Amino acid sequence: RLPRVYVTRRIPPDGIKILQQSGICEIEQWDSDDPVPREELLKKVAGAKGLYCLLTEKIDEEVLRAAGPSLKVVSTMSVGYDHLSLDDLKKRGIRVGYTPDVLTEAVAELTVALLLATSRRLIEAADEAKNGGWGTWKPLWMCGNGLTQSTVGIIGLGRIGEAIAKRLKPFGVKQFLYTDIGPRPEVAARISAEFVSMEELAKQSDFITVCCALTPETQGICNKKLFSKMKNTAVFINTSRGAVVNQEDLYQALSNGQISAAGLDVTVPEPLPLDHPLFKLKNCVILPHIASATVETRNAMAALAANNLLAGLQGEAMPKEVPL
Ligand code: GLV
Ligand code: GLV
């Protein structure tokens, strides 16, 4: 009998095709657009050799215990892997694949779109046009903040941060600043970005964009300390993980005019409850975690996750493996 892999969702066609055509595994799948119920996951993972999952599944000690010693590979169709308990995976000698690079462009593009939508108040303005608020052309109405001659601060200068900077540069950005665990001279040189402290970044930036991974070190780093130092004309954008931001503090900063606006593609929790206070703010644009959502990108992510899984099953080097 072929080893079994469990796929936790309906995934783009390229991914499933690669698994099927490999002929080296038996595929079982939660064939739905909605997440697999936890109970079902715990049941189906038992005895599987491979697990193909998404960022919506928390892969922790409970799942690994349910899986048992057969489980050798976990492949997530995401660049982020904060939903995986790496310590527990490592302890059990389970290898982990993820999907960097293939989504960099799509995420950077969406980040620029969200930044412009937020700073130029697109959603609010379109609502006014539709709902009778237009009235007439008004010199002081719906004014936002432009990118020309601006300073952009990047929190976490990796592949995505660099791709965002490259796309923003042609809009006339004057200066890029960044913070990270330490200086990243190679990337920084390519986009002429200056390494500064979080405090300097907050004080000087007209736009701040968060592109770091969620780790114990980055959890909640965008909090009232940061917001209180930002310009009150500044725009805050997050397309990484919701938990990097203290949402209470962000709500306060947005509602008392400490900062100008925020655009979020990620929140805690996801989905954000409909009665959440952030939804009531006109200066907060919230998207349902769609940064990598282009047809090509999602197919590429699905294919890469499939190839990672197959390589792992065969004991070969994965195209993109998380170093444990
Ligand atoms: C999306 O958030 C991802 O991690 O791929
Ligand atoms: C804007 O439409 C202008 O003509 O200034």
UniProtKB/TrEMBL annotation:
Superkingdom of source: Eukaryota
A Pfam family this chain is assigned to: 2-Hacid_dh_C
GO molecular function: glyoxylate reductase (NADPH) activity; hydroxypyruvate reductase (NADH) activity; NAD binding
The keyword Cell wall biogenesis/degradation appears for this protein: no
Domain D-isomer specific 2-hydroxyacid dehydrogenase catalytic residue range list: 5-322
This protein's name: Glyoxylate reductase/hydroxypyruvate reductase
Family: Belongs to the D-isomer specific 2-hydroxyacid dehydrogenase family.
Keywords assigned: Oxidoreductase, Signal
InterPro entries xref list: D-isomer_2-hydroxyacid_DH (IPR050223), D-isomer_2_OHA_DH_cat_dom (IPR006139), D-isomer_DH_CS (IPR029753), D-isomer_DH_CS1 (IPR029752), D-isomer_DH_NAD-bd (IPR006140), NAD(P)-bd_dom_sf (IPR036291)
GO cellular component: cytosol
